[in-house]
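Run Protein containing DUF1549 through structure prediction, thanks.
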Amino acid sequence: MCGAIGELVTRSDAAEVAGAQETPPPATVDFTKQVQPILAKRCFACHGPDKAEGGISFAEQESAFAEAESGEFAIVPGDIDASMLVARITTDDEFERMPPEGDPVTAAEAELLTRWIDEGAAWGKHFAFEPMGNPEPPQVADPLWNENPIDAFLYKSLDDAGLKPNASADRRTLVRRAYYDLTGLPPSPAAVDAFINDDAPDAFANLVDQLLQSPHYGERWGRHWLDLVRYAETNSFERDNPKQNAWKYRDYVIKSFNDDKPYDQFVREQLAGDELDTVTTETLTATGYYRLGIWDDEPADPVQARFDEMDDLITTTGQAFLGLTINCARCHDHKIDPIPQSDYYSMLSFF
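Sure, done. The structure for Protein containing DUF1549 is below.
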């Protein structure tokens, strides 16, 4: 879990852009990042998960490409002339223009939608639902950047954007980056001098290994995880009483990073540390995850407060472990992701 982080954050050839360079627009329109937000903002009120006026809904690919009640098609991949959507968002006829109320589609939004349809209207899926792959690293022009797969992918992304990386960092800059990235602390003058004067070919690798063995590594990087799981040592609300022994969970996270614990084990211990085949003090401590959220010790409505606590837990679990806003389905089917309201309450029953 932890070793990969060190490799990612301590690149000597920092991919920084020298000078101000304009990034050209992407050659292909990205549905998830560019198109779906426009459809949700401009169209979902009448043609979304809750309504399908005229038999048109842009919530799912099948319904978006289906024949409307009028016999026309809102979206015909590759054919903007046959796509009713393009005609309705670009017309000057106020009785035909969509959306009928509110702010009209901007020229930039219309251009994106038109270009997307012209390119074939690829309907992207959320990254969390895509199968894991093992792509071949690209071969790039600079042979130095082909030595490591991560470098090759970075270089290609920069090259595709018309950017070039800066030259290699000098050794003084490099040792400071390593210390700040891995431990969050500055190197001592003696440590800087020792690295500068170390002529060994693996001097930087040795430095990284040394820092990964430091207890400060877990303290530095464990903080990112503690932020994700909303770690706090008090309960919030007006009394904001302390959470007794919350520090034990904090120390568990730090130790897990320093021990390079496998991520799947790290997840299992927090979600079900008391149900594993082998239950230890450490796995029980991991389940402190469930008590990290805000807690009202004297709510006006105890039942409502209990469900709010569960919603906070579902929200955090969905975002931290799945990258999804599951909590949107508490009151209705999710507007963007394929998460029905029934799935929300099925997950709630697990907790």
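The longest helix spans residues 302-322.
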